[in-house]
User: Fold these one by one.
Assistant:
Number 1:
Amino acid sequence: MASKKFKPSAKATLPFKTGNREKRQKLHIVRKKALDNTRRDERFRRRREEDKDPSLRDERLRQNVPLTLERKRVWDDVDSDTGDGLGVSVDVERLKRQKLAEDADERAQNGEVDGGDQEGSDDELDSMIDSTSDIESPPTSPKPQSSKQQKTATDRATSPTQSTTSTNLALTPSALADRFPTLFATAPSPNPKTLITTSLHSTLHNEATLLTTLFPNSVYIPRSAHRHSHKYSVREIASFATNRKYTSLIVLKEDQKKPTGLSIVHLPAGPTFHFSISNWVEGRKIPGHGRPTEHDPELILNNFRTPLGLLTAHLFRTMFPPRPEFEGRQVVTLHNQRDYIFLRRHRYVFRETKGSERNVVGPDGKEVQGVEGIRAGLQELGPRFTMKLRRVDKGIQRGSGQEWEWKGGMDKQRTKFQL
């Protein structure tokens, strides 16, 4: 059938429901050609109008945004007091701004602040969150909407995305920090030391060795499965690692001789995070790859916006040194998108732009001031893989999944994400 955007010509309305199959085929070809001609005429007409008025082209390109799941994302409707927030899909930046606004309104009603303090409070509110937030941005539709009316799919599609926003770890809810005091310690964290092992009867010795190059100060100890040896449990291995001043324990899981899971235990008392692994690619199989060095890398955490996302971000933060070695020019990126965590490791170099290259632009599409004429070249080192958080267990248990803090798969709504 014809598209609703175009009015088919008289040739496109030929009857095609005939009993003769050959006539139906011919009529379908004639009708399809007529529709193609109609679309072509419409496209040329739009081009002529846009050549006369370039603002029409800018308006069309601004609204021509793909309607993806990321732009359809919905949040739970909660107040500013959500407790630790586990299991709730809520933006911590929006909650922080909402709470500050409520406090400012309460002080204004009580008359406890003067005009200067009120102006400073407004500046503080503006500095808490980026002005390009897709939560607070006004809809592009000219129709007036009430404050309680939700955005339509088209309005959400034309809002700017925040998939490139760095994670602000300072916005962690206090109730979440009280629930996991070891992950959110106020004292300076010790130098991380990680013990890496595998599941029983595992053959992933090469993959586990690659993880020792990814996580600084890590050691791989094979897990024996000999019939005359003692098969140590994860709880016994965690006790062994705690006595030797390890801060994290990683258990690499296997299925059909491929990495399928990663369990990370925060020592000494947990919690335990269970991730599934997909798309594992070694560094030597990446085209144009480089060789990693022993320098401590920098860590980039992107797009962790919910309380559960901040908890996961703090877990990875404790596994990397707080002071990287910049002379190595290595960076590990953990980018969250649709609850999938993409892990990449690169080596960067700064160079001058070539004649055909543009300047560096930010997430808003504008050129970044101060770095004109400079470009950053990247070389991937590997390994690369994708993780998805499945469960957060309480402490370190004898059997996995007996008591859990959070469990995935509880919400079946595709447009609601947990991280």
Note: The CA atoms of residues 179 and 378 lie 39 Å apart.
Number 2:
Amino acid sequence: MRMPLMASPRIVEGIFAAINKPKSISSAQVLRDIQHAFNQSEIFKPWLEVERNKRNLESSTQQRRRRNKRLQVKIGHGGTLDPMATGVLIVGVGKGTKQLQDFLGCTKTYEATVLFGAATDTYDVLGKVVSKAPYNHVDRNTAEKALFQFRGSIEQRPPLYSALRMDGKRLYEYAREGKEVPREIAARPVTTESLEIREWLPSGSHGYKWPDAEIDEGEKRVAENLVSPPEAAEGDAVRKYLLSTPGPQQGKKRTRQSEDDDAAPSSGTPPGKRQERSNDARSSSVIQDRSVPDDELPESDKGPGVNTSKSAETPTLSHGPPAARLSMTVTSGFYVRSLCHDLGQAVDSLGMMCDLVRTRQGDFELGRNVIEYDVFSESEDVWGPQVSQTLNGWQKSLDEKSVTST
């Protein structure tokens, strides 16, 4: 009597979900944490078993190459986020990692906060201050008018602290090593489908502040040779102040993750509809320090006698610079940090990004179909049903597309 054949365990893989990435953790670390949970799960045991059998059939040469590589669930993401950013991080497993490229080219929606009055080498509050400028003249109306030049098809210069390559080397590697880039970073065509101010934060109404650290002389030389500061228009507010050089700073040197926080490699060349916009709005770095009256500086920058005991995470309210919360939908290759930096110059001041949330990427949107990162610290009984449901849905959509195309 023949024994009935046992049904083979189903191999579960695909685009399983989008994760709500928390702040202060890299996209790579999010993947490692999820991968650790998957390696020990019942859901992915069949996948790991199939991969183990494949490896056993490999040639001795291939097996020697893998001898130090632990068998783990294959996992990847569809567009990285900077450690300071939060929001939608699309994750694929197994064969689903091959589909992640499709998400690099889709539109993304962000909410970001720009803080006026200073610029940093990284274009955000994680960097070092390279310049300061007046900001009392900056109001919502001024910023609204400046936003017009950043809508539609534009040319945007990526930050030096980015994962783009030049002559086979990441740009951030040149910056970390204190080396000059071989040539000026070229502006790239991107498209802004929508861009609005969601909320205006007047001086003294928020807790954002500039970083305490400033670039040292070595870093300053690298930045100066990268891009010259934009020319101030005759009679404008900036020209009223003398230029001075920020001195070297003591203390801990900041580091930045080797990833593109807010951009994926551009997959196309959108038409340059408004590429004639001024150099002021397109320049990528400002090196000279524009001396600012003491009454325009945040309390923490006014010298001794001011309580600065609170950390950067919970800054003290001050009568410092204004800020604005922006909402935008953009195409692949767009750097939100560059927008904040360029907007500061466009309003005859300076700016840096101090907060970033990716609220949507493709069909994944916060509050609708995104899994919270913290759930993976729980048992498989908690996150397992969500992962299985999304993977099964992904496979079903592929099957339907296959039937339609035949």
Note: The longest strand covers residues 188-201.
Number 3:
Amino acid sequence: MAKLYDTQTTAEIVVQGLSGEIANKVVLTTGVSPGGLGAFFNQYIAPAKPALLILAGRNPAKNQETAESLSKNHPNVLIRTLQLDLESLTKVREAAATVNSWPDVPHIDVLVNNAGIMACEYSKTEDGLERRLGSKGLKTVSLHPHVIGTNLSNHLDWNTEFAALQAVDRKIGNTEGWSEGFDFKTPSRGAATHIVAAFDPILKDSNGSYLQDGHIADPYTETIKPYALDKVEADKLWELSEKLVGQGFDY
């Protein structure tokens, strides 16, 4: 995949190039609270006229707030909300049953899973899973949007906790541990890679790819952990996930 986009690419530029792929698609996005990357993602793709935007999140009021904002700016785009608590497998299955019960939504074209929480104190979900693991799940295509000022980090004080995060990075060998600061992306730059991952037809032949800065990351020139590209590790993770959720999946 040629590097059509880079770290400076904005969501608007990507949407302009992929508008034909976005049009008439049914898109379900998790993590859509106002100020979050999921909400920004929908904001940027709405002008390309998707068939339906399904906004899924734990808090119905926040889901509705994002829906109303989108409807105000894009009144011709159909929008539906879905209560989805990823920290409960029972509630995940209830949400799936709800979607399957909608007679006017026979299929979903694109599923976008956003990180629900980060840098939080250790705790477990009702199913006994560590919260960050339990609330994220697996993806067909994974990506790193880089550091963006969203509500995901509202509970962090960057003035005091940046040094602690750097210390962790150094301990595990991440190059970020020796950087002098983060290149905080705007929401538009941050959402650009999401849009590429969701709609670029080139990725159909690159299932399981890892993306950053709007393109498939190059392990020879960009920082990628080897396990992120290891098929054996991917198979093991899939099998472990099936075991943890108590359900097998054919693919």
Note: The beta strands are 26-30, 52-57, 78-83, 110-112, 142-144, 210-212, 215-216.
Number 4:
Amino acid sequence: MYDLLSEAASKRPVAGNQDGSYLTLKSNFALVFGVIQLCSGSGTVFLDQAYWQRAIASRPTTAVRAYILGGIAWFAIPFGFATTLGLAAVALTDSPSFPTYPNSLSPSQVTAGLASPSAASALLGRSGAVALLIVLFMAVTSCASAELIAVSSVLTFDIYKTYVKPAAAPSSLVFISHVMICVFGLTMAIFACIWNAIGIDLGWLFLVMGLLIGGAVFPVAFAITWKGQTAEGAISGALSGLAAGLVAWLTTAYQYFGAVTVETTGEEYSTLAVAKPRAFSWETTRSINAINCDDVSSPNSLNDRDNSDRRNLPTIQDEEKEIQDDVTAEEEPAKLNGAFKIACIASFLLTLIMDFLVPIPMFLSHYVFSQGFFTAWIVITFLWVFCSTAISVILPIVEAAEFFKSLSSKIFGRKQQLREG
């Protein structure tokens, strides 16, 4: 691999890279892309309703741990794919098994995301392409499922229940949520067809989404950290940020490339362009979905339901225990403060290491990997992927071991009772 990448650098040097090499972090366009990714990635995660719903539904102590581990596990995706299939696509371009042999992938094919499938096909043939298709299908369906639920919840509770029908019954809300899932799913499909028809690819969307959503990051952040934030300030801040981003984006594309087209607006340098407070008591947020004792059903009304199906549900006691745990956590600020400190320390250290301590010195030193250093890089990559596998696959099984043990004992205990009866 090292020899093939060195040979590829001599045949197809990369503009802006040290000696045109693929084995270096001294890449001008990579630096620009990294800055864009920091902005767009922060906005994408911070403004994603799916992340908010999961965080709010979890206890602070467990949410902090889950998001730290999740972030570490997620990094294996770009790190592992870029190091393996990304570099393999470069190294195998001159191989007769490469799909575009004897030509290399065009820039449009690369931005369309065809580098990984081409490398998988060259390495493993049709089975490699099928394996990558399965991976992509699982990733897309997982993300789409989370977004469908998140957007449906926003449209149902924040719009329909708040402004259209505040007294909506639970059954009505369930029906509306199902309708909204269908509406948003159809909307995603329509936009995907439109982007494909007009020549918008994944690379363009990835670079542009940051400037489209970045203006709302600080208004949302202030909404939960500053009591002086106002509704007018949040709305105007997000809209003015969007307007400023669009103006800077299109102006830079025209000044640098002389035209405003899909191609010029998708360039790295184009997308890189970058009220009086009143006190808020936070009572509004605390009252969201608050439990009202007056609304609790009476015993007689509960008896009208199918108690034979409900009395045996094991989640009732679990939910009561979780509610009690939440109350306990609220009554113990030390736990919340501890979780907050852990989140701050982990965020600072991970950002410092991943964004500055590792890449910046290697960029400034113009270092080109030796074969030994490249080998160490590959080893670290695979260790990270294995760590991600442990977090994503093994850890949930370990954490749920007691549940499965209890479930098994109840199942087999019930069977034993039936036999004895």
Note: The chain has a mean pLDDT of 84.
